[in-house]
């Protein structure tokens, strides 16, 4: 059913890529391969340092909580001692515990930023070296 203005449909042609003469491993040689390996090492190093920092801050927080709990157990009179009508144990938690928790958080954020800045400096210098730029 070909009309006067329609052209006959050509059969489909299969288009394939030419056969590769090199393997993928050979094609990756050069600075790209170096960047991938160095980048992987740097990222793993950053993750390890951030994990170490998080564990240290969590341990500090746990010691803080256990210290408060131990002080309340070892000195039960703190619950009955009142200062301006407020038990001393509440004052210790409110004015001693929360500022220390905020301090741990501030220390964590500063150290995490320092770790990330070190990572960026290392990855930037590695990228410049692979590009051949000495600066």
From TrEMBL:
The lineage of its organism: Bacteria, Bacillati, Actinomycetota, Actinomycetes, Micrococcales. It comes from the Bacteria. It comes from Salinibacterium xinjiangense. Keywords: Membrane, Transmembrane, Transmembrane helix. This is Uncharacterized protein. Residues 1-25 are annotated as: Disordered. The chain crosses the membrane at residues 53-75, 81-109.
